[in-house]
Write a structure and sequence with these properties.
alpha/beta; 7-stranded parallel β-sheet; 6-stranded parallel β-sheet; 39% helix; globular
Length: 527
């Protein structure tokens, strides 16, 4: 029976690969004019959503851009949108379709999205069907995905004629082991994979046994904000973020007990909402800090609220590439942050444009805040440095990196790409080492920061159920580097068949689950 089952699965694999080849032969030429971006919930609030909106707005200058949201759970977007960017919703949960198929499938768990995906509970069998149909309907253009579950689905289902770009807004190290195994074998199929930080780029270089054609770091850009810069005279400290344990606001409140005793005329404002809000309010009450700490709720104009403060504090347990730091820098605030290695450590130069504090140490955080409060010259010097740093993340500067990446991917598809020659060393200078060696040196330089983080770990490091459900909102509140694998496009793009990982897997449990794949005739070992 097992032999018969294997033969049946092999037949399914051959049928699927043949179907892909026929679709590719009829596909239009490769193009980057159309750009489609997969997003979980476009009308929600979170750093990833805002950064995707910024990128879409920039690309809409020269491209036909559409944001494809899996869910619609709000009537209006939380963030302003560019009228040039189109929106599509696959599952409208405000006005659900009367289709009896939807009623039945929406009660069944997802089979396309891995259970280890932090937003797994938001998907179901109906969203699987809608997502699979949409991805398979594309035969040209660029398709981007913005979270691990959507990246993995794109790797399985996208036709070889579509240029695929995976975006990672969460550090690889924070993914559980089963998810990392899937990432190892599926992310190789992308035309490009982008990370937000150099540390995450190194992790992917060292983890992926076979890399995408381009593995590159492109940071987030400073979003457009109105108004001016902070005058630094206000006795206000501000923090912004979704209220989950990962954001560490409970630590910030504890630290503020010390600050409030020394500086009772200063106020802490924490903007945001989330499952920990009631707990934080209770903590404030128990500490007798009413009026000294206020929770105004979410803000639709973060720039205006930052402008009213003098100091910005980031107390997160870990971060990818926090947009709130960029926004605070652009408003000219003095920054105090825990020294998280996958974001703040790369964005902030200690004592230049902010202060970095040993992670998860409340007393050190309070000391750093009081130092900035008491030393006005330091506060103004850090704020000036923050403004200079923010200029390096200008929308046009970061957008130019995306333009160059898309042009390169198109050239690879068209067979016109020419790998640039590395610059020749000057006479008497040693030849530059490889990117991996450079990354190793960077890792050595990061060792102390990583050790500080590990030393300070405590019971908060055990993620609770709210962390698992809500970490999707943490991701974006997260120089271009070349990947090690610079191979060109296969002569026959149909030979690169997405959708099946192992020879034992078939394209579907039911009508639409598509599991592992055979790549270029070689089978990937079991995960």
């Amino acid at each position: 029976m097992r032999a018969l089952a294997r033969k049946g699965k092999s037949a399914m694999v051959r049928l699927y690969k043949g179907y892909n080849r026929r679709k590719v032969r009829k596909a239009p030429p490769p193009s980057i004019h159309q750009v489609r971006i997969l997003l979980l919930h476009a009308y929600g609030m979170g750093g990833t959503i805002r950064t995707v909106f910024n990128l879409a707005s920039y690309l809409a200058r020269e491209h036909d851009v559409e944001i494809v949201s899996i869910l619609k759970e709000a009537e209006e977007p939380f963030f302003p949108i560019d009228p040039r960017v189109k929106f599509r919703f696959l599952d409208d949960r405000l006005d659900p379709s009367p289709d009896p198929m939807r009623t039945m499938l929406s009660k069944m768990p997802s089979r396309l999205i891995p259970k280890e995906e932090t937003a797994y509970h938001r998907f179901n069998l109906w969203t699987d069907l809608k997502l699979a149909r949409y991805i398979r309907s594309l035969d040209t253009g660029v398709l981007m995905a913005t979270r691990p579950g959507l990246n993995l689905a794109m790797a399985q289902l996208a036709l070889p004629s579509v240029i695929t770009v995976g975006q990672e807004h969460v550090a690889l190290r924070t993914q559980v082991e089963p998810m990392q195994e899937l990432i190892k074998w599926r992310y190789r199929r992308f035309d490009a994979l982008t990370t937000l930080t150099k540390a995450d780029l190194r992790d992917y270089r060292n983890t992926l046994p076979k890399k995408p054609k381009r593995l590159v770091r492109i940071p987030n850009a400073v979003p457009p904000m109105g108004g001016g810069t902070a005058d630094l005279n206000s006795k206000v400290v501000v923090a912004v973020g979704r209220m989950t344990r990962l954001k560490g606001f409970h630590r910030l409140i504890t630290a503020w007990e010390t600050v409030a005793q020394a500086h009772p005329d200063w106020q802490l404002r924490i903007y945001g909402a989330g499952p920990q809000e009631d707990n934080l309010r209770a903590q404030i009450t128990e500490a007798g800090l009413e009026g000294k700490i206020v929770l105004p709720g979410p803000t639709t104009d973060v720039g205006a609220d930052l402008e009213k403060a003098s100091i910005f504090v980031l107390s997160s347990r870990h971060e990818g590439f926090p947009m709130t730091i960029l926004e605070a820098m652009a408003k000219g605030l003095a920054i105090v942050s825990f020294n998280s290695p996958h974001g703040p450590k790369e964005m902030i130069t200690d004592e230049v444009d902010g202060l970095l504090v040993k992670p998860r140490t409340n007393a050190n955080l309070a000391t750093a805040i009081m130092r900035v409060i008491e030393d006005e010259d330091l506060r103004r010097r850090l704020a000036a440095g923050a403004l200079e740093t923010a200029r390096t993340y200008d929308v046009d500067a970061v957008g130019a990196q995306w333009d160059a990446l898309l042009e390169e991917l198109l050239a690879r598809r068209n067979g016109t790409y020419v790998k640039p020659e590395p610059p020749a060393p000057a006479p008497g200078e040693p030849r530059e080492s490889s990117g991996l060696q450079d990354a190793s040196r960077d890792d050595a330089g990061d060792a102390q920061g990583d050790n500080d983080e590990h030393e300070a770990r405590d019971a908060d490091d055990i993620p609770d159920s709210e962390d698992a459900r809500d970490s999707e909102h943490e991701s974006g509140d997260e120089e271009r580097e070349s990947g090690d694998d610079e191979r060109g496009q296969a002569a026959d793009p149909a030979e690169h068949t997405r959708g099946l990982d192992r020879p034992g897997d078939v394209p579907g449990r039911g009508a639409f689950e598509l599991r592992r794949q055979t790549v270029n005739g070689a089978t990937a070992p079991p995960a």
